[in-house]
Amino acid sequence: MILGVAVLLTGCAQTHVGIPVAAVEPGRSKFDAHCAGCHVIDAVTSGYAPTLEGASWVTGPEGLIIRIVLHGVGGPIEVAGQTHDLSMPGFESILTDAEIAAVVSYVRSRFGGISTPVSAATVRQIREANQGRREYWTAAELLALD
């Protein structure tokens, strides 16, 4: 019986939303370190930042969430039918392109059901296109871009 449970748990631990654990672990660990303290993760875990579950900012064009993670977002933003007026810091100076790609891939997989990973090259392209940006994005700016 114990062996059966151990085998079952080992098998369950090998995937996360249909993606091998190795593909999401770097993103998950960075998310846990930098994002999970604020964002609502599930119905049990509370946070003061908006939920990411099914949010159009997560499921929409990947450029939206990449820009948010890079430079942050501030001011009124609608998420899941509710308007929030908070600021989220950017991680441009803290996380590498590969780390941001991993976080965004994890978030899109975990909260949006999107299994296509985001590449570090895409993050680098967006980072380079917005060099010198020091202020948070607004929702209106982001929606006008993508």
Radius of gyration: 16 Å
- Read across the widest sheet, the strand sequence of neighbours is 1-2
Class from secondary-structure proportions = alpha+beta
Q: What is the number of independent domains?
A: 1
Rounded to the nearest angstrom, the distance between the terminal CA atoms is 53 Å
Task: Give the overall shape.
Answer: globular
Q: What share of residues is helical?
A: 40-55%
Structural description of this entry:
The protein has 146 residues and is of the alpha+beta class. The protein has one domain: Cytochrome c-like domain (Cytochrome Bc1 Complex, Chain D, domain 2, Orthogonal Bundle). The protein has seven helices and four strands. The chain has helices at 2-12, 21-34, 56-59, 62-71, 97-112, 120-129, 139-145, and strands at 15-16, 19-20, 72-79, 82-89. The strands form two sheets. Strands 1-2 form a two-stranded antiparallel sheet. Strand 1 (15-16) and strand 2 form a beta hairpin. Helix 4 packs across helix 6. The longest helix has 16 residues, at 97-112.
Throw out a few tags for this protein.
146 residues, alpha+beta, Cytochrome Bc1 Complex, Chain D, domain 2, two-stranded antiparallel sheet, 4 strands, 49% helix, disordered N terminus
